[in-house]
Amino acid sequence: MKNIIKFLALVSLIVCAILVSKPIKANPPDPPSHHGETTNQAPAGAPIDGGLGILLALGAGYGGRKLYKSRKKKEEAENDEIEE
């Protein structure tokens, strides 16, 4: 039962993070009306910083959780060996 509650909390946290994050737009800018009227510069890049930061934070949290669980499991195994 605890695992189900933890799983639902994690899923709802991820869904909330996705809904709150800024939408990523990759549409190119409108071309100038006449070629050569403005300077010939490359179009600006697509903004990906909002979603990328959220993904990095979630990845770091997931990695930290996995590391904590593996260390805890290893520590419990060592304690079981000592007691026997």
Question: Which terms summarize this structure?
Answer:
mainly alpha, 2 helices
How would you explain this protein's 3D organization?
The chain is an all-alpha fold and 84 residues long. It has a domain at 49-84. The chain contains two helices and no strands. The radius of gyration is 24 Å and the shape is elongated.
Strand fraction equals under 5%
Q: Count of DSSP E strands? A: 0
Question: Mean of the pLDDT scores?
Answer: 78
Main pleated-sheet profile: none
List the helices and strands in order.
HH
Uncertain spans: none
Q: Which secondary-structure class do the elements indicate?
A: mainly alpha
Helical content band: 55-70%
CA gyration radius, whole angstroms? 24 Å
- What best-fitting shape do the alpha-carbon axes yield? elongated
Number of helices: 2
Cα distance, first to last residue? 30 Å
SSE order and pairing:
Elements (H helix, E strand, L loop, with lengths): L1 H19 L28 H35 L1
In brief:
The protein has 84 residues and is an all-alpha fold. It has helices spanning 2-20, 49-83.
